[in-house]
Amino acid sequence: MLIDLHTHSYPHSDDSFMSVDELIEGSKSLGLDGICLTDHDNFWTDEEVDSLSRKHDFLVIPGCEINTDAGHVLVFGLTGYTFGMHKPEVLREYVERAGGAMIAAHPYRRRFLEEPAEKPGARDEMLERAGGDEFFQMCQGIEALNGRGLEIQNRFSLDLCGRMSVNMTAGSDAHKVEQIGTVATEFERPVSCLKELIKELRDGRYRPVDLR
């Protein structure tokens, strides 16, 4: 089944230009089986998510995109933000304690620069440096395809994942209606709730899919 693990809606994410209802209906109309609400440092309650799922007759799962010193992380299993989570090791401790999962979002950011990468050997050096980043080792997977990323940026992410032999996901990172449904994560087994999603993420039974 196809689930978009990375989405944003207004006002939970103040840089988004669509409502959560537009996000859900747009995803449903494009044939996705579910979405995760991963707004910036902002958490949806179980009651809100259950209400949205019933309203749209569609799988909606809560998550959050947290900004850390080492990059952005999609987290699943937490219910609120605690000071200190901007430190990756602190965030991992909270996620592990909750039995949750972490996915490194758009890993090319901060680690891949297009113009320097054109120089001989520069891109390989960037990959080598990123591949040794302990931050990625803390996560259950890495977002290999980001719907808003350029092809050259996503190629860097895919090569990084291949070099590290890690599990790969895909998320649209949609902030506008027209960005919905570009990529998604295909799960081998059915997912019907947050608990099942976390289990599949931790067990690695999924792959990134480009729907464009």
Please provide a written account of the structure.
With 212 residues, the chain is of the alpha/beta class. The chain has one domain (2-210): TIM Barrel. It has helices at residues 20-29, 46-56, 88-98, 114-117, 122-131, 134-137, 151-164, 194-203, and strands spanning 2-4, 34-37, 59-62, 64-68, 71-76, 101-104, 141-146, 168-171, 183-187, 206-210. It has a 5-stranded mixed sheet, sandwiched between helices. The protein has a 5-stranded mixed sheet with strand order 4-5-6-7-8. Strand 7 (141-146), helix 7 (151-164) and strand 8 (168-171) form a beta-alpha-beta unit. Helix 5 packs across helix 7 (151-164). The chain is globular. It starts with a strand and ends with a strand. The model has no long low-confidence stretch (mean pLDDT 97).
